[in-house]
Amino acid sequence: MRALTVVPGRPGSVQVGEVADPVAGRGELLVDGVALGICGTDREIVRGRYGAAPAGEERLVLGHESLGRVRAAPEGSGFAPGDLVVGVVRRPDPEPCGACAHGEFDACRNGRFTERGIKGLHGYGSEQWTVEADYAVRLDPSLEEVGVLLEPASVVAKAWEQIERIGSRSWFDPRRLLVAGAGPIGLLAALLGMQRGLEVHVLDRVERGVKPELVAGLDAAYHTGGLAEAAARIAPDVVVETTGAPRLVLDAITANAPYGIVCLVGLSADRTRVPVAAGALNREIVLENDAFFGSVNANPRHYALAARALSWADRTWLARLVTRRLPLERAAEAFEERVEDVKTVIDL
Ligand code: BGC
């Protein structure tokens, strides 16, 4: 079968080539790949800046935003041929640390977790793949066209869960949300904010095209320009920063409202140094009971929350998030970054 592979650490090594057909082990599903979403993490791996192949192997099968159809399922697994499934990305560390021992492996404490298509485990970027039934999530058949958005939506569902848990440390009645970045994660964060009845604002550098249209489609407000200025106008109760751009990250932390929560979900690839007035920042954070935190990955509870959020959303709106579809043989094109793109999907 064909698979999308890369040698981690070696830029320019991405290719579509033949690999051995997968064989389902005990308790595993054999799945026909339907589609694969590409995100910033995949681009980082392709640029040689992130990722690790399985122990003893040179190449890593890329891909963690999966969608497939079960071809064969073990008796009693709860799955049947024809089911639409998405594979969970992370597996707990072998030790396991306290978080992994409690099923909260998205919060692994020792960094020895593995991730399909990212760190130490082959991904879902192949014509067929296998997945342990315990790490497969069944999707409503009506979500087939947009099912590839479940993994990014799970990351956002986790972020929202954490925001709400942090907010509930005291009185919490958020009204306004500011999202930095109108990529897939930002737009899904905005969607989940709308579903919570918030007044939603999305900030991006792109001035026209599908991003402002998608924000308008949610009945949210679209802004360009600086985050500090936008935050001063909006006074958001919650900021979700999805770009990882150093300036925006710092502005998000400094410009939030008293008792505001800033959730950082963007991974910075930028090594720019931004000077910080640490003393003034400290005073502001303490005197305003501000909170900022990072959120990554998701466990099966978050996938379930994400599946529910997607099922409530307008399918046409969700489908518009996919701005580019490529056949597997043209997968290399998916890694060219274009600012006007939202989600690029490879058809398997
Ligand atoms: C994935 C997460 C993963 C993270 C870091 C993200 O793109 O969605 O599941 O934990 O990268 O590897």
UniProtKB/TrEMBL annotation:
Name the coenzymes or cofactors required: Zn(2+)
Q: Which InterPro entries match?
A: ADH-like_N, Glu_dehyd_C, GroES-like_sf, NAD(P)-bd_dom_sf
Q: Which is one GO molecular function term here?
A: oxidoreductase activity
Q: Which residues form the Glucose dehydrogenase C-terminal domain?
A: 145-348
Per the database record, which ranges form the Alcohol dehydrogenase-like N-terminal domain?
25-139
The superkingdom listed in its UniProt entry is Bacteria
Q: Which Gene3D superfamilies match?
A: Medium-chain alcohol dehydrogenases, catalytic domain, NAD(P)-binding Rossmann-like Domain
PANTHER family on file: SORBITOL DEHYDROGENASE
- Family stated for the protein in its record: Belongs to the zinc-containing alcohol dehydrogenase family.
Q: What is this protein called?
A: Theronine dehydrogenase
